[in-house]
Each structure stands twice: as C-alpha cells, then as structure tokens.
Amino acid sequence: MTPLRPTRGWLWPLAADLACVLALALGGKSSHEAGESDWVLLAIAWPFAVAAGAAHAGLVSQDRETRRVWPGGASVVAVTYLLGMLLRALSGRGLAPGFLVVAGLFLTATMLGWRGVVWLAGLRRRRRPSRRPGSR
Question: Number of folded domains in the chain?
Fold first, then answer.
C-alpha cells in the first residue's frame, strides 16, 4: 500500500479558504448579531470551516491540487457551501433564503477570487522576461 502524499503546498490554500470562511462569519456577526458575544463567530463559522477542511482533505488524499480555480477550487467551494449548509441546519442555526444566497455568492467570490489572483500573478511572472534588455 502506498502512503498518502499530500500535494505540494496544501496548507496555505486551506488557510486562505478558512480566512474566507472567517470573513463570512465576521460579516454575518456585524450585520445581524453585532451585540452578541464574539463566540457567535465560532457558531457561524464552524460548519463551513469543517466543510472546507473536509473538501481539502478529500482532494489532497487523491493527490489533487486545491490551489487552482478549476477543478480544485470549484470543488472546494461546492463542498464548503453544501456540506457547510447541511451542518449549519443540523446544528439548528437556520437557513434563511437570504443567507443561502449571500453565503453562496460570498464564498464563491472570495474562495475562487484569491485563486484567480494567484493564477494571474503567476501568468505575469511567467511572461516577464528574466532580465532587462541590455543587462548581462
């Protein structure tokens, strides 16, 4: 049996996605539960954080890249949203239609957004000549 080898650089994409989940929770708290304890952040974030972790673990265990927009990033977003909503419902937090839409749009924009920025930065780096003209 071959031991599982995580794909190269698996930790920072997970951290970036967890930051997106935390941003969702911060926005929800400030908009709807501003007077509540800071512990409410955990109540909002944990289902999506667990789901994002599961999505990354599933892809990494299959030696698949989680940093790219497609297909890894799209898979992470889908699992984070769907499993996160299921866990949220099971925990009794509720699934208001507005939250379903806002969370879906926010997670998609942020989780695919940072991947798009990384991809564009990589394109710029590859297109840039390694030396300035006239230099040795």
Answer: 1
